[in-house]
Amino acid sequence: MFKPSSYSWCCWCSVPSVKNRPSAVVHHLTYIPYNENKDELIPLNSVQNQGFGTENEPFIVYRNSQLIGKENKHLRFVCMSDTHNEIADVHIPNGDVFIHCGDAVNHRTSSRDIVRFNQFVGQLPHKYKLFVSGNHCVCLNPKQPDRSQKLLNNMIYLQDQLIDIEGVRIYGSPWRPKRGCFYRAEAFGYNPKHIREDKWSKIPQDIDILLTHGPPYSIRDYNVSTKEPLGCPDLLDEIVTRIRPRIHLFGHMHECRGASLYKSEDNRLLEGDEFQNQSNDILFVNLAVHQGKTLGEPTVIDYYY
């Protein structure tokens, strides 16, 4: 629906910014971003989502509304991102699938630290462990995903890859619009003019969960330094007009951690008339654990399918 021409550029450092783009309307479920003026959290619709994303009160998400009230298969997902060498200090609940959406390390020491991260994850009890790279993972060569998989041999490394886990289809992609030559932690930065055609358009439609490192535009992507949203508008367009996953997990923007619910009926400007009938909500979660001097908790999701 929208074109990459919505990007403008800072000529001296090649940093893209977004102009004249409609924002997604979301209902915040946990941790309202401080730049948004909300009096209270939106109550959850118990028909589609409930809980608070914690170990004792996980988010409960159904593949479709017809499964509610029936006995279904389900998997428990334990999800996190942006641990920056402090994963050992985080309480990680047990579950079926462990997910990390990037920036497990710091860019200056990433070659050493990624080995330690892999060793730590290997000790976790989860049956499946998935990893999507982040911009600090400069030791991982985008042109050699097989080599990255060998290095991260205690988990499944996803670089533009689809995986089926016991009937749940999950796609992972590490890319984000690149920010320019002054940023040292810039692994998997991609030309914003081509990121939709080259990367996002390759994401299949019939997936349950999407993993990326960076956020979509206007959803938990506020940048404190620039006072602007930093997410990718082309990623948002693909998600809401074509891919329609039940859950999108990401990180990158530390200050915007938390969960938000996207409803089609509130986003007609983005979607047109295509998805107004029987369209599932989308749960968006910014999983960034590192919060400066404190650490957040992983997000726990029970997915019924």
Summarize the structure.
Residues 76-256 form the Calcineurin-like phosphoesterase domain. By secondary structure, this protein is of the alpha/beta class.
Question: What do these coordinates show?
Answer:
A hairpin with a 4-residue loop joins strand 15 (222-223) and strand 16. The chain starts with 6 loop residues before the first strand and ends with a strand. The longest helix has 13 residues, at 110-122. By secondary structure, it is of the alpha/beta class. It has helices at residues 110-122, 145-151, 195-198, 233-243, 268-271; strands spanning 7-10, 15-18, 26-28, 49-50, 59-62, 74-80, 97-100, 128-131, 156-157, 161-165, 168-173, 176-177, 189-190, 209-212, 222-223, 228-229, 247-250, 258-262, 282-286, 290-291, 294-295, 299-304.
SSE layout:
Elements: E1 7-10, E2 15-18, E3 26-28, E4 49-50, E5 59-62, E6 74-80, E7 97-100, H1 110-122, E8 128-131, H2 145-151, E9 156-157, E10 161-165, E11 168-173, E12 176-177, E13 189-190, H3 195-198, E14 209-212, E15 222-223, E16 228-229, H4 233-243, E17 247-250, E18 258-262, H5 268-271, E19 282-286, E20 290-291, E21 294-295, E22 299-304
Parallel strand pairs: 5-22, 6-7, 7-8, 8-9, 11-14, 12-13, 14-17, 17-19
Antiparallel strand pairs: 1-2, 3-18, 4-5, 6-22, 10-11, 15-16, 18-19, 20-21
